[in-house]
Specification:
The protein has one helix spanning 58-76, and strands at residues 7-13, 18-23, 26-31, 44-48, 51-56. It is α+β, with helices and mostly antiparallel strands. The protein has a five-stranded antiparallel beta sheet with strand order 3-2-1-4-5. A hairpin with a 2-residue loop joins strand 2 (18-23) and strand 3 (26-31). It is elongated. This is HypC/HybG/HupF family hydrogenase formation chaperone.
Length: 80
């Protein structure tokens, strides 16, 4: 099973079809050539193996990020 953590676009390089994204405070570069719709700084993407697979709404991204943070907090506190 694979899962993606929503990542926020912080920079775009349209010529190289690359984006710089922030994933829970860590920046990385990903390919956006599979996304068929316009992208902008501040958009959220789901990433799989270095490729943006889907653009998602900010609401959906923030809901998912809140759940991930809750899981991390519980793991840190030994609750799970």
């Amino acid at each position: 099973m694979c899962f993606s953590i929503p990542s926020k676009i912080t920079a775009l390089n349209p010529e190289g079809q690359l984006a710089t994204v922030d994933t829970l405070g860590r920046e990385r570069h990903v390919s956006v050539h599979l996304i068929g719709e316009p992208l902008a700084i501040g958009d959220y993407l789901l990433i799989q193996s270095g490729f943006a697979m889907e653009k998602i709404s900010e609401e959906r991204a923030l809901d998912s990020l809140a759940l991930y943070r809750e899981i991390v907090d519980k793991m840190t506190n030994g609750e799970i």
